[in-house]
Amino acid sequence: MMHTIDSLAAELQRLRDRPSSDAAPPVLSLFVIDVHGDAVEYERRLRSVISPAVRLGGTADFEQDSLPVDDVPGWFTAVSSQDLEQVPQFARNGCDRYAEHTGGGRPWELQDWLYRFDPDEDSRGWEWWDATPVGPSRVHMWVDSWGESFFGCQDLLWAAYAAGAVRVDGPAVHKSAVWSAERNASR
């Protein structure tokens, strides 16, 4: 699926303000994320990483050798560059969990990760939909995968783990009514 300037703008809006329940597509993909610590704080960190990348998708010149990183949180830049002295413990632990989850996968280099948000790049098989804390240390992350149960999401997994996930299960496709009920219950 190719991303368009309009779809990136809508995705960025969903990162800023939770979407209304009547705006959802028929199905969404769910990732169940267990975190160490506060689920609300985790959700904020996750959004703080995805937001600048989606914004770049709509504004950056992807023909350049490198993309601007001014809006990317410093901790995410540090964990991506393996500057371990600057990496907070939650991100360090998440990096280890990502390696376990992927069978030895190394941290994503920041520029490689940001280039996945090029609207002409078709390897990003998802768009952000929402994240909902569903317990003191559990978050449900919802993405639009256009009904696909198997899609390119290693970039998303990296962000989820780097933001402090202990465990990520998914994706699993659900009717959007599941998200909508959850959204309305968490107001």
List keywords for this structure.
alpha+beta; 187 residues; 4 strands; 4-stranded antiparallel beta sheet; 19% strand
Walk me through what this model shows.
The chain has 187 residues and is of the alpha+beta class. The protein has one domain (5-61, 70-185). The protein has helices at residues 5-16, 39-59, 74-81, 89-101, 110-115, 154-162, 176-185, and strands at residues 27-35, 127-135, 138-144, 165-175. A hairpin with a 2-residue loop joins strand 2 and strand 3 (138-144). This is S46 family peptidase.
The tally of beta strands, per DSSP, is: 4
What's the overall average pLDDT, rounded?
93
Secondary-structure-derived class: alpha+beta
Based on CA inertia axes, which overall geometry fits?
A: globular
Separation of the first and last Cα atoms: 32 Å
- Specify the number of helices: 7
Q: Reading side by side through the largest sheet, how are the strands ordered?
A: 2-3-1-4
Could you give a short account of the major beta sheet?
4 strands, antiparallel
Strand content: 15-25%
Uncertain spans = none
Helix content: 40-55%
Count of domain modules: 1
Q: Please tell me how large the radius of gyration is.
A: 15 Å
How do the helices and strands follow one another from N- to C-terminus? Answer: HEHHHHEEHEH
